[in-house]
Design a protein that fits this description.
Blueprint: H1 2-18, E1 27-32, H2 38-50, E2 55-61, E3 66-71, H3 78-87, E4 94-99, H4 103-107
Antiparallel strand pairs: 1-3, 1-4, 2-3
Length: about 110
Protein backbone atom coordinates (compact mmCIF):
# COMPACT_ATOMS: atom_id res chain seq x y z
CA UNK A 1 0.00 0.00 0.00
CA UNK A 2 2.82 2.42 0.89
CA UNK A 3 4.44 1.74 -2.46
CA UNK A 4 1.37 3.00 -4.29
CA UNK A 5 0.67 6.08 -2.16
CA UNK A 6 4.18 7.58 -2.45
CA UNK A 7 4.26 7.64 -6.29
CA UNK A 8 0.71 9.01 -6.40
CA UNK A 9 1.60 11.83 -3.99
CA UNK A 10 4.80 12.57 -5.93
CA UNK A 11 2.98 12.65 -9.26
CA UNK A 12 0.16 14.82 -7.88
CA UNK A 13 2.62 17.33 -6.43
CA UNK A 14 4.59 17.47 -9.67
CA UNK A 15 1.47 18.06 -11.78
CA UNK A 16 0.24 20.75 -9.41
CA UNK A 17 3.54 22.64 -9.49
CA UNK A 18 4.07 22.19 -13.23
CA UNK A 19 0.64 23.59 -14.08
CA UNK A 20 0.86 26.58 -11.79
CA UNK A 21 2.59 29.00 -14.20
CA UNK A 22 0.95 27.87 -17.40
CA UNK A 23 -0.20 31.28 -18.63
CA UNK A 24 0.29 31.76 -22.37
CA UNK A 25 1.86 35.04 -23.40
CA UNK A 26 -0.72 35.92 -26.04
CA UNK A 27 -0.62 39.72 -26.02
CA UNK A 28 1.98 42.17 -27.29
CA UNK A 29 2.31 45.41 -25.36
CA UNK A 30 3.85 48.26 -27.32
CA UNK A 31 5.28 50.96 -25.08
CA UNK A 32 5.93 54.46 -26.36
CA UNK A 33 8.74 56.04 -24.31
CA UNK A 34 9.78 59.55 -25.34
CA UNK A 35 13.16 59.52 -23.57
CA UNK A 36 14.22 56.04 -24.76
CA UNK A 37 17.87 55.73 -25.80
CA UNK A 38 19.75 52.98 -27.60
CA UNK A 39 21.77 52.05 -24.51
CA UNK A 40 18.52 51.66 -22.54
CA UNK A 41 17.44 48.95 -24.96
CA UNK A 42 20.78 47.21 -25.35
CA UNK A 43 21.88 47.16 -21.70
CA UNK A 44 19.12 47.90 -19.26
CA UNK A 45 15.79 46.72 -20.63
CA UNK A 46 16.90 43.42 -22.19
CA UNK A 47 18.49 42.41 -18.89
CA UNK A 48 15.55 43.71 -16.85
CA UNK A 49 13.04 41.56 -18.72
CA UNK A 50 15.26 38.46 -18.66
CA UNK A 51 14.67 38.49 -14.91
CA UNK A 52 10.89 38.58 -15.29
CA UNK A 53 9.45 35.19 -16.25
CA UNK A 54 5.99 36.60 -17.00
CA UNK A 55 7.28 39.14 -19.58
CA UNK A 56 9.25 38.46 -22.79
CA UNK A 57 11.21 41.28 -24.40
CA UNK A 58 10.47 41.11 -28.14
CA UNK A 59 12.11 44.16 -29.67
CA UNK A 60 12.91 47.81 -29.19
CA UNK A 61 13.65 50.81 -31.38
CA UNK A 62 15.22 54.03 -30.23
CA UNK A 63 14.27 55.60 -33.59
CA UNK A 64 10.54 55.13 -32.98
CA UNK A 65 10.98 55.31 -29.18
CA UNK A 66 9.08 52.05 -28.66
CA UNK A 67 9.61 48.64 -27.11
CA UNK A 68 7.49 45.54 -27.61
CA UNK A 69 6.83 43.04 -24.84
CA UNK A 70 4.95 39.75 -24.94
CA UNK A 71 2.75 39.16 -21.88
CA UNK A 72 -0.27 37.27 -20.64
CA UNK A 73 -3.01 39.87 -20.54
CA UNK A 74 -4.66 38.36 -17.47
CA UNK A 75 -1.51 38.39 -15.33
CA UNK A 76 -0.06 41.64 -16.72
CA UNK A 77 0.54 44.24 -14.01
CA UNK A 78 0.93 47.77 -15.35
CA UNK A 79 2.17 49.24 -12.05
CA UNK A 80 5.00 46.67 -11.80
CA UNK A 81 6.03 47.49 -15.35
CA UNK A 82 6.01 51.22 -14.58
CA UNK A 83 8.22 50.60 -11.53
CA UNK A 84 10.71 48.76 -13.75
CA UNK A 85 10.72 51.63 -16.23
CA UNK A 86 11.17 54.25 -13.50
CA UNK A 87 14.13 52.29 -12.21
CA UNK A 88 15.92 53.22 -15.44
CA UNK A 89 14.58 56.78 -15.55
CA UNK A 90 12.01 55.98 -18.24
CA UNK A 91 8.36 56.99 -18.29
CA UNK A 92 5.84 55.25 -20.51
CA UNK A 93 3.82 57.76 -22.54
CA UNK A 94 1.46 55.32 -24.23
CA UNK A 95 0.42 51.65 -24.07
CA UNK A 96 -0.92 49.72 -27.05
CA UNK A 97 -2.19 46.17 -26.53
CA UNK A 98 -2.33 43.76 -29.47
CA UNK A 99 -3.87 40.34 -28.90
CA UNK A 100 -2.04 37.56 -30.77
CA UNK A 101 -4.82 35.02 -30.42
CA UNK A 102 -5.73 33.55 -33.77
CA UNK A 103 -8.63 31.44 -35.01
CA UNK A 104 -6.36 28.37 -35.12
CA UNK A 105 -5.67 28.79 -31.40
CA UNK A 106 -9.39 28.82 -30.65
CA UNK A 107 -10.10 25.73 -32.76
CA UNK A 108 -7.45 23.67 -30.98
Amino acid sequence: MKHIIIPILFLSTFLLLAGKDNHPKNTNVILKISNLKEEDIIKNLRNEFKQKPHIDFVDGSFLTKTIVLKVNEQSFNKSNLEKSMQRWGLEVDEYVFVNNLSISDIEN
